[in-house]
Specification:
This protein has 23 helices and no strands. The longest helix has 27 residues.
């Protein structure tokens, strides 16, 4: 709560409002010192217990991983892309692994993969797995900051628990299994969104993430429709800079990617398989076809408009909605993975901030007096957690072409993430509407807020208004 109040007073303090100069990289040592201080302030016994639980969980994960086997095929593709750049080979002609997988990211991303060629595959398997576990903890920390929950001295305990236990969430499990970069991208985006709106460089990390993988560009749209125009343009210009770098170093690959390979969906994978947890994938399985056509496009468009509208509505209702920015960011993230033509299960690592947000709502619900307490957020949290722990899409028969012929009873578990994401957006809309009604505000009129201003004390207002 102290953080929110200080942020609410920030516009009155000239040095914070107009930092001079805005060199974001200088904050790294300060962040390290703050992390050390937070660990020192954490209760010793709970932190030790959490560390022990996390260690046991990671040992169990390593054991399961050993017996299940992990190909880390995406890591192999990344390394091959970096090798193609380093040795001047045709980037988009390569085919690697037994599945003959091609390069699918922009040339800028392939350039960033060059350092992976300096090490052997055995070392990379260990380093990237360990790095992803660390990134999972970082994502938890950024999620706690976004939600402003729990107390600061308890957050190191939460980070340790999420890093240790979060490996069992299916999107995280498959990210580790394939050696994917989803956690790194989510950390880049969430770090940027957590920064004060007054920062001139806000949007740079989102632009870099979009330059690596196009989907994060939707967060620039989120910044734009929530009135943070400068940050949106910074993100857009940064993305253009990544394009320029790719064009300067790899002109042929850049031309090929943006004029041909980007639009060849067969390079990415099949739309109808259960691995694809987007709206389009769910519609394809429902229609028993590999090309769901116009219906899937319309469904995606409806979800895009509804999701972004809900995200903007939550952000602009932060005066009455506790954790309004967190609701907005999570809605934007869910919308991004829902409307992407292909969203593999590991793209849903955004379940981490989603679950943290729902846990904060459940904790606040539990802290209310018994006379006004309602059992709503805890069941929602439990169901959402169950969805991301279920691995249900892998349980239904899906070998060969069975994805295209799933019976009605198998459609729900095969589309568990699109259904969960759509339900999350609906819950967010009901949450915003309830808070606005409780405050006596009309649902459609948006409040006029100062640029960069934040609500003074949303948590205290939530205490005064038990409705919603």
């Amino acid at each position: 709560m102290t953080t929110v109040r200080e942020a609410g007073r920030a516009p009155q303090r000239q040095p914070e409002q107009t930092p001079a100069p805005d060199r974001w990289y200088r904050s790294v040592p300060d962040t390290a010192r703050a992390a050390r201080a937070a660990v020192q302030a954490a209760p010793r016994r709970p932190l030790a217990v959490a560390s022990a639980v996390a260690l046991v969980s990671l040992i169990a994960y390593a054991t399961v991983r050993h017996f299940v086997g992990t190909s880390m095929v995406d890591m192999v593709v990344y390394r091959a892309e970096g090798s193609a750049v380093a040795h001047g080979r045709d980037l988009y002609a390569l085919r690697v692994t037994e599945w003959k997988l091609p390069a699918t990211y922009p040339p800028f991303a392939a350039m960033l993969f060059v350092p992976t060629t300096w090490f052997g595959l055995g070392f990379l398997r260990v380093a990237i797995t360990a790095g992803n576990v660390v990134l999972l903890g970082v994502l938890a920390h950024l999620s706690f900051r976004l939600v402003d929950w729990p107390r600061r001295d308890l957050r190191p305990i939460g980070v340790v628990l999420v890093a240790g236990l979060g490996v069992w969430l299916e999107p995280v499990f498959t990210t580790l299994r394939y050696g994917q970069i989803n956690l790194a991208l989510a950390c880049l985006i969430l770090w940027d969104l957590n920064r004060p709106d007054g920062r001139r460089s806000k949007g740079i990390a989102i632009g870099i993430a979009a330059g690596i993988k196009l989907t994060p560009g939707l967060f620039a749209v989120y910044l734009l429709i929530t009135g943070r125009v400068r940050a949106a343009f910074v993100a857009g210009l940064t993305f253009l800079a990544t394009f320029a770098v790719g064009a300067a170093v790899l002109p042929g690959a850049t031309w090929g990617f943006w004029t041909k390979y980007l639009y060849d969906s067969s390079r990415v994978g099949k739309t109808e398989i259960v691995d694809n947890q987007s709206v389009r994938g769910a519609v394809a399985r429902l229609l028993h076809t590999a090309d769901p056509g116009t219906l899937a496009t319309l469904a995606g468009a409806v979800v895009a408009v509804a999701g972004l509208a809900t995200a903007a509505w939550a952000h602009r209702s932060a005066r009455w909605l506790p954790r309004g920015e967190a609701w907005g960011v999570c809605c934007a993230a869910v919308t991004a993975v829902l409307i992407s033509p292909i969203s593999w299960t590991h793209h849903w690592v955004w379940c981490v901030p989603m679950l943290v947000l729902l846990a904060a709502e459940a904790a606040h619900e539990r802290s209310r007096p018994a006379s006004v307490r309602r059992l709503r957020w805890r069941p929602i949290l439990a169901l959402t957690l169950l969805a991301f722990l279920s691995f249900s899409m892998w349980i239904v028969p899906h070998k060969g072409d069975l994805d295209q012929h799933l019976p009605a009873l198998h459609q729900v578990p095969a589309a568990v993430y699109p259904l969960t994401g759509t339900a999350f957006l609906a819950v967010a809309a009901f949450r915003v509407a309830a808070r606005r009604r409780a405050a006596g505000e009309p649902l459609v009129r948006l409040p006029q807020q100062r640029p960069g201003a934040r609500p003074e004390s949303p948590r205290s207002q939530d205490d005064r208004q038990p409705v919603g």
